[in-house]
């Protein structure tokens, strides 16, 4: 913003909110006198959220800290001695040096994250300072890693639905979210879709503004919605209402979900555990960073699996190094999960492990079930659900053990070349056989 008197400037919201609003700021004598939504970004539509509309109050607020203060009394007492910048910097540097000399540089933890930081104010001078000092490293994902993990688990790499696509929906389900407070620019698109005939379902204990406008508001008790999700899921599969063609072409884990729907019970997934093994802040993430450089760490602090995948599938040694980091943690977690199942009196503990034979762990299990289909179908499905080329998919298939060998060594094989219904029937037969084994002991 420039310091000219009595005029308006267009700028953009500095927060890391996905709405990326364009702002219209009114200035008078170099001071912000009003701030509202602009029209450069059509999604903003001339209005913004309350917290940013009041940025001016914060910028000129009497409580805003404009100089360093040295606390005199106990925390919360509000007793400060105001000091100059030189003294403040000398005190902070002195305390950091003292901590380093006494306990080692890792005793200092830089504790900050984004939100209102831009490219120039995060991970530039601060990163260099703390790196050279040798401070502890913090995965800068203080609030984003949990939502990121949930998003990744639910949607994979699909970032989201663009707002403009909502207008074409026939059914919109808002599950545990309140866009009227946390995604205000989505609301007009939902309302437009409703006017065009879309049904709106809101699953939320609260009567949110959109819940009050919904065709169906399921006000479930907090924490009980997973039962509703599972029963919906079962209903769709058991009544042939799931879009099988879409699932076969676009979804990962559909086979796993389907086996659950025929009653396989809880299944521990090695792929999920592999994600956990290199989650931000874990020893696995640190080992990946050290072996493969900062380049494989995304801006959210998570390992960028696409970049990492490209590196390891071109280099056998790199793949072996990555497996040496991830696999021990995965099998430790699987063994712990199985012990817990046994302790709970469960008759069976089922693990889904894509590289079971390759890792030489088949002997850890009483029984091995392989799901298989022809290679051409594997390639077609992988290309439909990822952005990989045919060559890349084939290279990844070649990096695994031969399918014939796995089929020969398996106790049971479920062929998945046919329809989802065919696969369901085969999975149910295997499930019956496994139950008989568990009960009869053969
Ligand atoms: S909704 Fe608010 S926080 Fe989000 S981009 Fe717009 S002004 Fe910024």
Brief digest:
By secondary structure, the protein is of the alpha/beta class. The chain has helices at 50-53, 55-60, 85-103, 125-133, 144-155, 163-166, 179-182, 187-195, 209-212, 225-238, 244-250, 254-261, 270-277, 283-292, 305-312, 316-343, 375-385, 390-398, 403-409, 420-440; strands at 7-12, 22-28, 31-37, 69-71, 80-82, 171-175, 199-203, 216-218, 267-269, 350-352, 369-372, 412-415.
Summarize the structure in words.
It is built from 20 helices and twelve strands. By secondary structure, the chain is of the alpha/beta class. Among the domains are: 7-60, Phosphorylase Kinase, domain 1 (2-Layer Sandwich), CATH 3.30.200.210; 69-133, no CATH class; 156-223, Dimethylsulfoxide Reductase, domain 2 (3-Layer(aba) Sandwich). The strands form five sheets. Strands 1-2-3 form a three-stranded antiparallel sheet, with no helix packed on it. The radius of gyration is 27 Å and the shape is globular. The mean pLDDT is 85. The structure holds iron/sulfur cluster. Iron/sulfur cluster is lined by residues 13, 15, 17, 19-21, 48-49, 52, 184.
Cα(first) to Cα(last) distance is 76 Å
- Poorly predicted runs are none
Provide the helix percentage. 40-55%
According to CATH, the homologous superfamily of one domain is Dimethylsulfoxide Reductase, domain 2
- Overall strand count: 12
Rg from C-alpha positions? 27 Å
**Percent of residues in beta strands?**
5-15%
Q: Please identify the top-level CATH class of one domain.
A: Alpha Beta
- Distinct ligands: iron/sulfur cluster
Oligomeric category = single chain
Q: Main sheet, how many strands, which sense, barrel?
A: 3 strands, antiparallel
